[in-house]
Amino acid sequence: MDAEFWLSRWREGQLGWHLPATNPHLLRHWATVAPDSTRSVLVPLCGRSLDLAWLAGRGHPVRGVELSPIAARDFFALAGLSAEVTHRGAYDVYAGQGIEILQGDFMNLQAADCPGLGAWYDRGALVALPPELRGRYVDTLARVLPAGARGLLVATEYQAGEMQAPPFPLDAAIVRDTLQGHFRLELLERVDALADNPRFLERGLKAYHESCWLLERR
Ligand SMILES: C[S@@+](CC[C@H](N)C(=O)[O-])C[C@H]1O[C@@H](n2cnc3c(N)ncnc32)[C@H](O)[C@@H]1O
After folding, report:
1. Could you tell me the pLDDT band of residue 106, with boundaries at 50, 70 and 90?
2. Protein residues whose CB sits closer than 6 Å to any atom of ligand 1
3. What are the structural domains of the chain?
4. 166 CA: nearest ligand 1 atom
5. What is the residue-averaged pLDDT of the chain?
């Protein structure tokens, strides 16, 4: 699952993960995770998620990071916003209405690329990465987030092998193993989400859960 895998998904418009509304887990849990809306929120592997606009609407400065320039352009165009494009570090930065999308590889992110972060939100990011990239992803988060920064992680859970990843299955043991070196973890909720995801039923899953984790940078 290299960059070309994702770039071709964007070129071909195969965006099965994209939700037409704000993610319900974000709506339910964000006030617990990040009550202070003056803090900047990092959204790794953000796609063109409507969650960016919801977070900005609560007052947060929002910093998404996304490989695909199509995603960055589409986000602003579909929201009816104009974006100014500049360059910072390893990224082209699309910016408008308090939202920046840093277009490039998340694994290159440095603290200077996104100053002032206080929170982060991961839906469709860690679960999109194969196991061998999880360590780099978490090291990158740890490099750019200050101690005390809080985040919401939405993890997908199903029997490994029942469908072709991504998303990859991340049960509680994997989440703890992957993140506990840098983060304190609390499981907020685990819900049966099969009925809400007919595309996974079609791909053969018999059971599918989503877990919401509150994480705090040590
Ligand atoms: C499963 S999608 C989820 C998108 C978004 N979080 C959402 O919920 O709609 C994963 C996204 O990560 C992007 N991506 C994959 N690897 C990346 C990387 N190394 N750096 C930045 N973006 C990446 C892909 O282009 C894709 O848009």
Report:
1. very high
2. 6, 17-18, 45-47, 49, 65-68, 71, 105-107, 123-125, 128
3. 3-12+24-217 (3.40.50.150)
4. 1
5. 97
